[in-house]
Amino acid sequence: MDHAAARREARNLLQAANQLGGDDAIALLNQHVARNYGLLLQDPIVAAQGPWLQTRSGRRLFDGVAAYSAANLGHGHVLVKETLKLFLDSNAPTVLGRFLPDPWLALFGRKVTQMTGFDRFLPANGGVEGPEAAIKLARRWAHKVKGVRGTPEILYADHCFHGRTLTVTQMFDPDEKAAVEGFGPWPAGFRRVAYDDLAAMEAAITPDTAAILVEPIQGEGGVNVPKPGYLRGLKELGRKHNVLVILDEVQTGWARTGELFCWMHEGEPARPDILCIGKSVSGGFAPVGGILADARLMDLLGPGSHGSTFGGCPISSAIAVAALTAIEQEKLVDQAREKGPWVMERLRQIAKDSPRIHQLRGKGLMFGIELTRDGPDGHAVAEKLVEAGLILKDTHRWILRFTPPIVASREELEFALEAMARVLAGAPTAS
Ligand SMILES: Cc1ncc(COP(=O)(O)O)c(C=O)c1O
After folding, report:
1. CB atoms inside a 10 Å sphere around CB 60
2. Would you give the DSSP letter of residue 258?
3. Are residues 89 and 27 in the same domain?
4. Are 279 and 266 part of one and the same domain?
5. How confident is the model over 134-189, as pLDDT tens digits?
6. Mutational pocket test of ligand 1: of 213, 275, 279, the residue with most ligand atoms within 8 Å of the beta carbon
């Protein structure tokens, strides 16, 4: 195809997307795409900038979930966009067999290890591949280094969320029927333990335990913030019993909680053996994730042990290098630290006038708003919030998550807070 023809065709494709009416887009989604997500609104999102989304009908909505924390930098960050344009113009390969050396992956590896303080990075596509790879690495360590003869066991926490592959799907709470029903049997070697309970975790450890896998704050579980010292305590247990600690910071990473990673609130003694990353590592431009560990562990994975066609491919690496540079240059950690307590204070004021707010939880710019059970549930409230211009997402039916783009200004955050104040004000009304 020559260049002029390609340009014409590309314009046609863009026009087709731009001209697809709201109803038509919804009809095509319903007809051709698996129905594993319910839609919160019927007006397609056609543009996004910073914390704002724009719908086909021209409405402007505040993205109060930052695409599940994949858009901590906001949507369409200019540095990532510009890097991506130059990358494409440079004729660099977008994808390469990983057996071929790639300068962009070299830069990505250097950047991500420098920022996190680990020796090595294993790249992957999106979040769930992190815990998957971490579990493989922990099992290999258990077999080859710890000397476990039977089934190496991974301990995980109740109410956790690590993604949707078969291995971690079994970790949903059993009452999460839509998520677990009909998908068994489950891979062996996993045990559920109470979250934020060091005594329960210690009691669960056996000579065959390979690793403890937890989120430092449970996001999907309802923004459950453990007691201070929990992560240090887990690491102490790990040292005492020769067990690895895997922290899944796919959601809490990249400044969300007011540190670059949530474990950093508890300092070096809480540093995990394996760190899972994802979401905002790409600034929301591509599915990128992976795990970090020191050489003594990561070097257990030699050629042939693990891999992925697209994990760490040049285009993903270029995007990630730009996003990580933007996270530093935007001083995202300082922004979350500075705005977080202010937002929490505003939420407390809103809660005073809203009998529907049962409890507020959070850290940095990660908030859970738990509703009382005597009115419309979280989904119904989220629908009302959309009408008021704010996207929030319910979890566990009664909890609304508010994880705004960290770059949102105070004025923009105030827009979101006022929408919440309006929708949640007054006495409960029947659903
Ligand atoms: C803590 C945690 N781990 C893993 C995942 C899975 O990430 P992905 O949906 O990109 O596979 C998520 C997604 O929300 C998450 O919150």
Report:
1. 12
2. S
3. no
4. yes
5. 999 999 999 999 999 999 999 999 999 999 999 999 999 999 999 999 999 999 99
6. 279
Same domain, yes or no, for 313 and 346? no
How many separate domains does the chain show? 3
Instruction: Report d(CA 174, CA 180) in Å as an integer.
Output: 7
Whole domain around residue 336: which residue ranges?
Answer: 332-424
For 14-38, letters b (16+ CB in 10 Å) and e give eeeeeebeeeebbeeeeeeeeeeee
For residue 431, the model assigns a pLDDT of 46
pTM (2 d.p.): 0.97
Q: Six-digit token pair at 10?
A: 């590309």
Largest CA distance in the chain: 68
**Residue 182 domain-assigned (yes or no):** yes
Mark which of 264, 296, 329 sits at the end of a domain.
329
The CATH number of the domain where 351 resides is what? 3.90.1150.10
Q: Are 325 and 111 in contact (CB under 8 A)?
A: yes
Q: What is the pLDDT of residues 190-243, one digit of tens each?
A: 999 999 999 999 999 999 999 999 999 999 999 999 999 999 999 999 999 999
User: Given 102, 158, 248, 394, which residue is catalytic?
Assistant: 248
**Domain limit, last residue, from 308, 329, 350:** 329
pLDDT at residue 86 is higher than 80? yes
> Which residue's structure tokens are 């009908």?
57
Asked whether the CA dihedral 234, 236, 240, 243 is positive or negative, the reply is positive
Task: Please check whether residue 347 lies inside any domain of the structure.
Answer: yes
Q: Is 156 in the pocket of ligand 1 (CB under 6 A)?
A: no
Distance 430 CA to ligand 1 centre (A): 33
Residues 297, 168, single domain; the answer is yes
Q: Are residues 11 and 95 in the same domain?
A: no
Active site residue 43: no
Which atom of ligand 1 lies closest to the CA of 252? 1
- Comparing CA positions, the residue from 183, 182, 178 lying closest to residue 168 is 183
Residue 29: strand, helix, or coil = helix
Q: Do 287 and 346 share a structural domain? A: no
Name the helix (H) or strand (E) containing 394: strand 393-395
Say if residue 30 is in the same domain as residue 155: no
Question: Whose structure tokens read 């089934």?
Answer: 151
Indicate if 183 belongs to the active site: no
Choice among 111, 235, 279, 339 that is catalytic = 279
In a shared domain, residues 111 and 23: no
Residue 77 maps to a domain = no
Query: In terms of DSSP bridges, do strands 399-402 and 393-395 run parallel, antiparallel, or are they unpaired?
Result: antiparallel
Residue 43 lies in a domain: no
Beta-sheet strands, E only, within 253-356:
274-277, 289-293
